[in-house]
Amino acid sequence: MSQTGGKGVKLAFEPEVVRLRLEQLVSLKSMRPGTKESKKYAQILRSVRAIGLVEAPVVSRDPTNPERFFLLDGHLRIEALKDLGQGDVECLISTDDETYTYNKRINRLVPVQEHRMVVCQRRSKNASAGRSKNASGGSLGTASWRH
Known about the structure:
The protein is α/β, with parallel strands linked by helices. It has helices at 39-51, 75-83, 111-127; strands at 18-21, 25-27, 58-62, 65-73, 88-93.
């Protein structure tokens, strides 16, 4: 598999999303005491419960163990999945193992865009209710939505 895009530019992620078991993920940072009691964590938990993951966690391969992956981004989302009893998750695999915080380098959605995205995802989820399970113990993938 080529790790370069057009004109020799190195890709930041492997081209395919990979489904991994949560026990394959190794967190590279510890959770602070009280994190699970925070408003931010409660919001993430409610969102994951309601619509699944909107953004896939980012991992890198462990060079010494092909069955293990280092969690680079998405620590709270993974904790939410664990608390909801999920066993696996779709992840993006970074081609660089640097513990770079991806969310600090992105443009945030304005509330109107975020609301629209959630509404579109809810409609999509309701339309395909028979195909996937969520809070009842099934697997949650990443959400797909259109503008």
